[in-house]
Write a structure and sequence with these properties.
Number of strands: 3
Number of helices: 6
Largest sheet: 3 strands, parallel
Structural class: mainly alpha
Helix content: 55-70%
Strand content: 5-15%
Radius of gyration: 17 Å
Distance between the termini: 24 Å
Shape: elongated
């Protein structure tokens, strides 16, 4: 991480992208220079993996990420985060299936698809470039 002055948290990046006054003030106060800033792979994954992300927001986010570095982090930490999100997703799917009487086979297909999506996100965060769409 030589040459990196700031490691940006997901919430700070979201604030900067939205033009939030506190985030902009913090950036100015700390002397943030994007070429000397970084985000973690998890932050990148959270930003690009947001389910309601619109195309324009994705373009803006990718442009933002292209001006900063993505820090490599331990595979075990990424796996831990993905497993955490997978548990949350699976709980939501079970709740949804129960409330809408989804058949067992449909539930299993949906669950398998969600695992595939999360595995893809993991691979992209581990091996993808800044421009890769997750």
């Amino acid at each position: 991480m030589s040459g990196i002055d700031h490691l940006l948290d997901t919430n700070v990046v979201i604030g900067l992208l939205k033009g939030s006054e506190p985030a902009l003030a913090l950036a100015q106060q700390s002397g943030l220079v994007m070429q000397r800033a970084a985000v973690s792979q998890i932050t990148r994954m959270e930003l690009l993996g947001f389910p309601a992300l619109q195309e324009q927001e994705e373009r803006v986010t990718l442009a933002f990420l292209s001006r900063s570095s993505v820090c490599q982090i331990f595979k075990s930490l990424i796996t831990q985060q993905i497993q955490k999100h997978l548990r949350i997703v699976m709980k939501s799917i079970r709740h949804w299936c129960k409330n809408f009487a989804l058949s067992t086979s449909s539930y299993l297909q949906l669950l398998a698809r969600m695992r595939s999506v999360l595995a893809y996100c993991f691979l992209q965060s581990r091996y993808g470039s800044n421009e890769a769409s997750v």
